Structures are given as structure tokens and as C-alpha cells.
Amino acid sequence: MPNPIGRALRNRRAGHDKLVWTLPGLQAPENFTLTSPAFAHRTPIPSAHRGRIFAPNVSPALTWTTPPEGAVELVLIIEDPDAPRATPATHGITTGIDPSLTGLPESALTDPSRIPGLRHGSGAMGRRGFIGPMPPGSHGPHTYVFQLFAVDHKLGLPEKFGLTDVLTAIDGHVIGRARLDGTYENK
């Protein structure tokens, strides 16, 4: 059955131009690649990775090629620019990713204790860790943008941090970046 709220908000979206990817202080060469064995770039994210309202909220496995030389830390920010709000919904902020790693296994973004050093910031609704896709029904397809930034220093963030803290810490320190887009629609 169609969702009248989703339909009413169908044309209201934050916009891809508001992703952190577009911020001037985060511009750098796209000099490594981010992929997932769960889905290809610009294809649907499997239902197993839906948000906790609908499913177990298990983060997908991610893999990447070697980040640029000089990378001290990797930072992952996941956003939904199709959310019916003024800014993209933040579906995950993970810092402390060791640049010598070549990926993260399934559920690593859901359970930070799986990988030493990972730290999760507060995203949408103040939740920490991965927040799987859960767009409003009948709102149309949403894009979930996994943005991986290689930075040239340790961030030194407080125990509790959010997107603004991370953006301030990495502004002007991004030496490379990679991106993976997945889609999801709740019909």
C-alpha cells in the first residue's frame, strides 16, 4: 500500500550538491577505489543491510585499493542526499580506520569492537555506528553515498563526536578519497 507521507514528500530531497563530498576543504584526487562485495556502484543495496526498523541493520563489507602515500587515517562518512530534509541524513561516521587495512568485514560498522581503533560518531537521530537504509515508503529511490577520505594526520576527536567535529578535523587534510554509491527504495 502506498505511503501518503512518502508520496507527499517525494519531490523534497536534500540534494547531492550538499554531500560532504562537495565541500571545498575536502577536495582531493580520487586516487583509490572503494567497493563492496554486497553491491556494485550505483546498484541496489541488499535488504540484509536495511536499517534496524526493517532488518538487523548489518553494515555491508567494504574493500578499497591502497590509499595514497602519507595517509595516516581513513575516515568514512555515509550520507543519504535523498532524505526529505534540508541536509543529507548521516548514516554513519567512522574514524580511526588504519590505512594499512584493505577493507572492513560485514558488520564492522555496526559493531566497532570487531576492528581495533575504529570510532563511530553520532549520525542521524544521534545514533552511533552504521544506520542502514530506511527511506520513507513511496518516497522513491534513495542513494546512500559511502565516502572514504584519506587524511594526513590523526584526528584527535573527543570521546563523543559528530559530523561537524569530523569535518573541522579533516578540512584541508584530505590527500585522497574514494566513493561508492548504493541505492535503496522502500516501495
TrEMBL record:
Gene3D superfamilies per the record?
A: PEBP-like
Matching CDD domains: PEBP_bact_arch
Q: Which Pfam families match?
A: PBP
State the superkingdom.
Answer: Bacteria
Q: Which NCBIfam families match?
A: YbhB/YbcL family Raf kinase inhibitor-like protein
Q: What family does the entry list?
A: Belongs to the UPF0098 family.
Q: Please report the name of this protein according to its UniProt entry.
A: Phospholipid-binding protein, PBP family
- Lineage start: Bacteria, Bacillati, Actinomycetota, Actinomycetes, Propionibacteriales
